[in-house]
Amino acid sequence: MRALVYQGPKDVAVVDVPDARIEAPTDAVVRITTTNICGSDLHMYEGRTDIETGRTFGHENMGVVEEVGSGVTRLKKGDRVSLPFNIACGHCRNCTEGRTAFCLETNPGTAGAAFGFADMGPYQGGQAEYLRVPFADFNALHLPQGTEHENDFTMLSDIFPTGWHGVELSGLRPGDSVVVMGAGPVGLMAALSAQIKGASAVYVVDRAPDRLALAEKMGAVAVDDSKGDPVEQLLELTDGVGTDRGVEAVGWQAHDHTGAEKPGTTIETLVGSVRATGGIGVVGVFVPQDPGAATEGAKEGRFAFPYGDFWFKGLSMGTGQANVKAYNRQLRDLIIAGKASPGSIVSHELSLADGPDAYKNFDDRVDGWTKVLLHP
Fold first, then answer.
1. Could you read off the pLDDT of 200-223 as tens digits, one per residue?
2. What is the SS3 assignment for 180?
3. Is 324 helix (H, G, I), strand (E, B) or coil?
4. What residues make up the domain containing 40?
């Protein structure tokens, strides 16, 4: 089968790889109909992680069941499914508590596994014609038959639940205001989620005009941090009080308002702009090691944190990857009911063969490349 594989920093190619196949009775093989390029794929694409060469990328996947193992009872050939980026066993302590992003059995020695992702198990990704899905009965989410809502449903594997998770972690209640750091796909999904959950005002901080325009289209207030310190801008917009909640949707490769890469700058901004006793949710990716970082501390996943201000203001902070299964069924039903259209951020739909050029354009932040879908 054909798949998009990592060959080195900023070098991916579509090549022939061994066919996905049933390896355990609880597996299924899914024919991929849509697989997305995620902002977190770019960390690996740029060589900022220890992803090995030859690995197939792709953790945002949906498709049609092609084959099931002898132990699979809920799925059958022809079922249309969304596949959470989390690979979870369904029966360990964390899974039974709903924390499927931190499964204790699918990636021995740590908590959490994912398709096509550095340090999250040996699993191949879905930027390919077919994908092996472990523990398929537990992990796959049934979708209505046909092709309706394809671009909306493909957001259920990661970014829509992740945006929702960021808002959940922040503690947002109806009527609260919230600032979202980053107008990439996850930040836009956080803005959408906050609107659905009843936020009184949503502010989105970025500097890319096309992304800020999408945030405004969703009803958010765009804050361009290239025009000045975002903390000062946010305090001015909130009469000096700050927002009730904040969501970090950028990760460790954040850039400050001068354009310089500065790990932790987004969290600093949130500590400065969220009001006393407010809450912060962090869903941008932060890693324990970054060999390509500019400083020794950053190479070990460390950066300065204004803990004194954080403590003095009585802020709270929740972190971590989204437990997709905690949200995807309800978010699917919001889409079916016409109450959410996460596919509105899609800018490009391309073939798998176009994947290498798509990665380059998305990584270069070419104007208008906001969310890319590949159709194998």
1. 999 999 999 999 999 999 999 999
2. strand
3. helix
4. 2-158+323-375
